[in-house]
Amino acid sequence: MTRLSGSTRYARVNGVQLHPTSLPGGRLGDEAFAFVDWLAEAGQSWWQTLPLGPTGEGGSPYKSPSAFAGAAELLADPGAPVSAAEIEALREREAYWLPDWEAFAGPGAVADQVRFDREWTALREYAAERGVGIIGDLPIYVAAEGADHRAHPELFQTGAQAGAPPDKFTDLGQLWGNPLYDWPALRRRRYRWWVERLRRTSRLVDLSRIDHFRGFVAYWSVPEGAADASGGHWARGPGRALFEAIRAELGDLPLVAENLGEITPPVERLRHELNLPGMAVMQFAFDPDEPKSPYKLPRHEENDVVYTGTHDHDTARGWYESLKPTERDDFEREVTETGIDDDPWWSLIRLTMTSRCHLCMLQMQDVLGLGSEARMNTPGTVGPQNWSWRMQKDALTPELAQRLRTATAAANRLPARSS
User: Is 329 a catalytic residue?
Assistant: First the structure.
């Protein structure tokens, strides 16, 4: 992988987001290795996944019953033999959290984690050999009554739950239902749980996106039992102290702060103090009601990560087809001024690549030109339509790799290994 000096500074490169469950077989193994090969052939430097833990309610990887365990459902060979020596080595290395997960998940849980670490390590090493880094995703909250909540009730509040406030998309806000952290209790323990969580994450990926970063400054607290999130209130988060504790134990970790939504000056001030890249989402750049939107190309910051869209947004094709006339005019005018002449969804990809942001991430569905039927998740909804999209077996063609490579080269984003 190509990076500049410093833990969060990256050369001008591209990557693709695709969760392993969206591979044709929905697992690791040969298809995951083939995807790495395809990324390298397409001139891509990064593969971004969603959280790698066991899934929770509705199949969501953001409501995992463990903040540490790997998902056994991702295993290509779930019946592979595991030796006593391997189990003992994992128990020693992951002593902080593994007993809690074993108590929650039952017999065979440790063996599954050995298998997961074995398969994932092999894939990550192969990706590194091909010049492809792995970007992981760290949800801010854990699942109610999951392994972490049960093992450490003293670290969580009672009588309140997590959510998001009302905004222009929903009058009732979003009721997530996760337990909220008792930040004073965590501080008294020197944030040990969070330190160990980041230690585990750093062993699995090369770079981590921290979900809902604004919650570390202030979070939306909703009374337990509320029917919706509209009656919540803002409460103070740990701020810089948490990250200083993590840095004191683990050094500078490569992190990206998810700073989407209702972002206030204190949130951005903390992010900049910590030198953490933020996110710029191009689907947000053409709202006529937001002429000073930070997502517009001239306002991008070099150290940020630019996305066509994320797992919570429509695909580029679905987005384009649902644009209002004024939004479409704004988008097509900017595309024309940039000299791009392509399918609308590929125009968004190529326009995104022109950003001054060093790192540009594309959704695999956008590269494939798929419509709204391939959307990964619609926030605020639960159902089989979420988290279930999979690529067709024949989707990763040499022609598509060449098309992406050509666009990547034109934007001066090819890694040094293939320039």
Answer: no
- In DSSP notation, 47-103 reads EE----SPP-GGG-GGG-S-SSPPPGGG-S-TT----HHHHHHHHHHTTTTHHHHHH
- Is residue 312 among the annotated active site residues? yes
CATH topology of domain 13-70+124-155+183-218+238-418: TIM Barrel (3.20.20)
Q: How far is CA 266 from CA 8, 254, 271, 295, in A?
A: 21, 21, 9, 19
Euclidean distance between CA atoms 70 and 78, whole angstroms: 13
Phi-psi region of 275 (alpha: psi -120 to 50; beta: other; left: phi over 0): left
Distance, CA of 29 to CA of 49 (rounded, Å): 15
Low-confidence ranges of the chain (pLDDT < 70): 1-10, 169, 417-419
Catalytic residue among 312, 332, 334, 342: 312
Please state the separation of Cα 182 from the chain's center in Å: 24
Chain segment 330-345, per-residue pLDDT in tens = 899 888 988 888 899 9
**pLDDT recorded at residue 291:** 76
Q: Give the residue extent of every domain in the chain.
A: 13-70+124-155+183-218+238-418
Tokens 């683990």 appear where? Answer: 250
Q: For residues 408 and 44, is the Cβ–Cβ distance under 8 A?
A: yes
Mean pLDDT of the chain: 92
- Which one is catalytic: 73, 102, 182, 211? 211
Q: Which of 119, 148, 258, 327 is catalytic?
A: 258
Task: Give residue-wise pLDDT tens across range 134-153.
Answer: 999 999 999 999 999 999 99
CB atoms within 10 A of CB 223: 12
Which CA distances in Å does 55 have to 156, 175, 181, 396? 21, 18, 21, 26
pLDDT at 326: 87
Cα separation, 60 vs 137, in Å, equals 13
